[in-house]
């Protein structure tokens, strides 16, 4: 089964290469996002990829952009390769289903995290302090338990490693009170809308992170705009409703099989990163595809439909 690890759009060179995505400049105002099949764990890109992962991430994001369109503007122009600039269409075999042409945004230097359940770093924080990112919570909560109400727990972007959890006051200091309040409100509104949809599909959305930027609207007024990937298994923690039992970790639709394998071989989490055995790759692929099918009701990874 073929994987696309490193897109080659020569002579174009990536403007930015992330763990999973390569970004290309398309003129002054647009970017091309290409989601590869690379997979990372413990802040390292592994030696093998997961077939179709980039398509799953892209098409889940496209689903959510459309689903949330009435709630928040987004940066998508089109995901149809036939509508890309002419010089990009020759790369259709690499771009189809896994790329988006988007408006370039002035991005905020903050990961906007919403949590509805106590898990991950939030659970560790709560065990140590009784708070999550400085937000006091009731005593006696269990791991994976639903919070009394969703909370906004921002993080400072850190491209060299884990993002650093910060308090709301730090967002105010960096962006100003009005913008900080707007980002908090929008983050929690999107989380609630997404959680409601996920529940109808048999999924709990434990937590997720968003990225926002400023893009001028038709009148030239900068507006807060949803960008990057949205509510994918890489940026969100989804749990099946069936079998949900607070008091411990829950099965999820992400790369847990990968992390479990890497722990089992006692990898030191240093370069070079190992490759994965075929069975771990296939089980991880199945999890990503299951999330896609459940959230979108689509049976196959078709070519995406643009707006």
From TrEMBL:
<keyword id="KW-0658">Purine biosynthesis</keyword>
<comment type="similarity">
    <text>Belongs to the SAICAR synthetase family.</text>
</comment>
<dbReference type="GO" id="GO:0004639">
    <property type="term" value="F:phosphoribosylaminoimidazolesuccinocarboxamide synthase activity"/>
</dbReference>
<dbReference type="GO" id="GO:0006189">
    <property type="term" value="P:'de novo' IMP biosynthetic process"/>
</dbReference>
<keyword id="KW-0547">Nucleotide-binding</keyword>
<keyword id="KW-0067">ATP-binding</keyword>
<dbReference type="InterPro" id="IPR018236">
    <property type="entry name" value="SAICAR_synthetase_CS"/>
</dbReference>
<comment type="pathway">
    <text>Purine metabolism; IMP biosynthesis via de novo pathway; 5-amino-1-(5-phospho-D-ribosyl)imidazole-4-carboxamide from 5-amino-1-(5-phospho-D-ribosyl)imidazole-4-carboxylate: step 1/2.</text>
</comment>
<dbReference type="InterPro" id="IPR001636">
    <property type="entry name" value="SAICAR_synth"/>
</dbReference>
<feature type="domain" description="SAICAR synthetase/ADE2 N-terminal">
    <location>
        <begin position="17"/>
        <end position="271"/>
    </location>
</feature>
<dbReference type="Pfam" id="PF01259">
    <property type="entry name" value="SAICAR_synt"/>
</dbReference>
<dbReference type="GO" id="GO:0005737">
    <property type="term" value="C:cytoplasm"/>
</dbReference>
<dbReference type="GO" id="GO:0005524">
    <property type="term" value="F:ATP binding"/>
</dbReference>
<dbReference type="InterPro" id="IPR028923">
    <property type="entry name" value="SAICAR_synt/ADE2_N"/>
</dbReference>
<protein>
    <recommendedName>
        <fullName>Phosphoribosylaminoimidazole-succinocarboxamide synthase</fullName>
        <ecNumber>6.3.2.6</ecNumber>
    </recommendedName>
</protein>
<keyword id="KW-0436">Ligase</keyword>
């Amino acid at each position: 089964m073929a994987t696309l690890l490193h897109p080659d759009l020569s002579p174009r060179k990536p403007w930015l290469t992330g763990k999973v995505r390569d970004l290309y400049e398309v003129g002054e105002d647009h970017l091309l996002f290409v989601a590869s099949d690379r997979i990372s764990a413990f802040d390292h890109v592994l030696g093998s990829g997961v077939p179709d992962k980039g398509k799953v991430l892209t098409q889940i994001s496209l689903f959510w952009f459309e689903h949330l369109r009435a709630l928040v503007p987004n940066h998508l122009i089109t995901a149809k390769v036939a509508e890309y600039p002419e010089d990009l269409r020759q790369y259709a075999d690499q771009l189809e289903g896994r790329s988006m042409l988007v408006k370039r945004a002035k991005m905020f230097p903050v990961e906007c995290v919403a949590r509805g359940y106590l898990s991950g770093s939030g659970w560790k924080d709560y065990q140590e302090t009784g708070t999550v990112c400085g937000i006091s919570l009731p005593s006696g909560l269990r791991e994976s338990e639903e919070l009394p109400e969703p909370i906004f727990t921002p993080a400072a972007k850190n491209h060299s490693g884990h993002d650093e959890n910060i308090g709301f006051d730090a967002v105010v200091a960096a962006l100003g009170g009005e913008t900080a309040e707007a980002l908090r409100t929008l983050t929690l509104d999107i989380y609630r809308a997404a959680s409601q949809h996920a529940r109808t599909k048999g999924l709990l959305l434990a937590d997720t992170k968003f990225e926002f930027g400023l893009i001028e609207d038709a009148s030239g007024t900068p507006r807060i705009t949803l960008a990057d990937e949205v509510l994918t298994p890489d940026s969100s923690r989804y749990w099946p409703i069936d079998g949900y039992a607070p008091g411990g970790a829950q099965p999820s639709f992400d790369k847990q099989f990968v992390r479990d394998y890497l722990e089992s071989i006692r990898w030191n989490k240093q370069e070079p990163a190992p490759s994965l055995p075929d069975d771990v790759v296939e089980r991880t692929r199945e999890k990503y595809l299951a999330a896609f099918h459940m959230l979108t009701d689509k049976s196959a990874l078709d070519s995406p439909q643009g707006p």
